[in-house]
Design a protein that fits this description.
Largest sheet: none
Distance between the termini: 27 Å
Number of helices: 11
Shape: flat
Helix content: over 70%
Length: 208
């Protein structure tokens, strides 16, 4: 039940409280999904070779086409939960059908033509499209959402990590992982994604 996942949001019908809770959910979700997507993009050749072998190296491009859409999958899940919690099931269904009607023809035509690169790209773009529609519907329900806090700051932090991973592929994987995590933690602090509120929350969790 969505109300069990968002119990605080379901009890806060005021737009300001709902906006604050939604922004926090999006910020923390993007702080996790953005670096995953950038790491997947940067390490696509290594992942493809390790999992499937050198004969599947041509699939690297497909994996890189899918990687940027990964954060929007998580964003769509969060926004669907928010709309359902706010008893906006009709708007949620309208957004899902809208994205489906727009994305399906492009994917079907590309697959029918046998061009899997275009088909993969169309499939990957369907997630930002869905997330964009749901984001617009959520804003109509609770008001404007701070894009800088929820998207820009995590994106900047994760792009720096992706660049580090891309340039440091010759480094041993354990060391590269340690460097990437350290860099990301510092970038989260630098961009303000993690602040006093998050440190206080972490401290209280460790105390308990």
């Amino acid at each position: 039940c969505i109300r069990d996942r968002f119990p605080i949001l379901s009890r806060n019908t005021q737009a300001q409280s709902a906006t604050r809770i939604c922004e926090a959910a999006l910020k923390y979700t993007n702080a996790i999904s953005f670096p995953l997507a950038t790491a997947l993009f940067a390490l696509a050749p290594l992942i493809t070779t390790h999992l499937f072998g050198h004969e599947y190296q041509n699939s690297t491009l497909l994996l890189r086409l899918l990687a940027p859409g990964l954060p929007f999958v998580f964003v769509a899940v969060i926004l669907i939960g928010v709309l359902q919690t706010l008893d906006q099931q009709k708007r949620c269904a309208a957004g899902l059908w809208g994205a489906l009607l727009v994305a399906t023809p492009g994917c079907s035509i590309a697959a029918g033509l046998g061009n899997y690169r275009i088909g993969t790209l169309a499939y990957a773009l369907s997630y930002p499209l869905l997330a964009g529609i749901l984001f617009w519907l959520v804003q109509r329900s609770i008001g404007p959402i701070n894009l800088r806090k929820t998207f820009a700051q995590p994106a900047i932090a994760s792009l720096s990590v992706g660049l580090l991973i891309y340039l440091g592929q010759d480094i041993s994987l354990p060391l590269l992982t340690l460097l990437a995590l350290t860099c990301y933690a510092l970038m989260l602090l630098f961009t303000g994604t993690i602040g006093k509120q998050e440190w206080a929350l972490l401290y209280s969790v460790l105390q308990n």
